[in-house]
Design the sequence.
């Protein structure tokens, strides 16, 4: 069983990559624009990406220590039949310390183990996540339209990885036209994680929760040989507790 579960836990760990951190050099501001529509000016792709990277850099510089509760579930083909349910408290102290503690854990051993592996991987990736940055260092971008998300005008950019790497996605991002923060990430790993899994899909939603920009919901679907189709979802509580500067989070497993 462990041999079957291990590749899947690596795949699920993609959910916890720190996609919102900008990498590469300093953003190069530009004044060029691609078009005007309905009285609204749409910046060029270079301008959107540069401002996105700058917004993310500023967000990291202003980040504070916090704790948030997450609700994880693993399903099979039917979403009304939960295979595993875990409630975890995640603590973050900038710039790179993240730990968790399990508050509830029920269901199949395989499902619970997968969720724990995700949380373990997130703690590891928090120490160095440069390879996962959505930035010009890792991706080429193409403007593909606009959307309205929760009442906010957003730009949609297609992502094309600059190299074949399991940590990079082929997909798209949705960028808030006012704050230039990423509100949604969706796509597939550009490289299949292993022979055991295929048809991997990832959907991540971010938002402002009590003054902190963080992952609010996520969904990962994957088809596993022998086990079939599995889906893991996560919903973060809207109750965020800010910790005192420098206060270490409690240890967790």
Sequence:
């Amino acid at each position: 069983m462990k041999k079957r579960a291990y590749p899947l836990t690596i795949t699920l760990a993609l959910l916890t990559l720190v996609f919102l951190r900008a990498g590469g050099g300093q953003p190069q501001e530009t004044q060029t624009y691609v078009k005007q529509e309905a009285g609204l000016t749409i910046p060029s792709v270079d301008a959107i990406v540069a401002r996105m990277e700058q917004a993310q850099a500023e967000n990291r510089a202003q980040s504070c220590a916090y704790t948030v509760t997450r609700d994880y579930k693993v399903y099979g083909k039917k979403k009304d039949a939960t295979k595993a349910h875990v409630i975890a408290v995640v603590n973050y102290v900038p710039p790179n310390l993240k730990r968790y503690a399990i508050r509830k854990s029920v269901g199949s051993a395989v499902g619970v183990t997968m969720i724990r592996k995700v949380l373990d991987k997130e703690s590891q990736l928090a120490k160095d996540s440069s390879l996962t940055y959505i930035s010009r260092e890792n991706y080429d971008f193409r403007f593909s339209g606009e959307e309205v998300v929760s009442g906010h005008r957003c730009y949609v950019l297609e992502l094309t990885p600059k190299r074949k790497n399991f940590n990079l996605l082929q997909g798209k991002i949705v960028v808030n036209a006012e704050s230039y923060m990423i509100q949604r990430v969706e796509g597939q790993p550009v490289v299949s994680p292993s022979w055991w899994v295929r048809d991997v899909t990832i959907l991540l939603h971010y938002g402002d929760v009590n003054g902190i920009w963080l992952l609010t919901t996520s969904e990962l679907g994957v088809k596993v040989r022998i086990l079939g189709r599995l889906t893991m979802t996560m919903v973060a509580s809207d109750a965020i507790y800010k910790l005192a500067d420098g206060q270490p989070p409690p240890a967790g497993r």
In short: The radius of gyration is 18 Å.
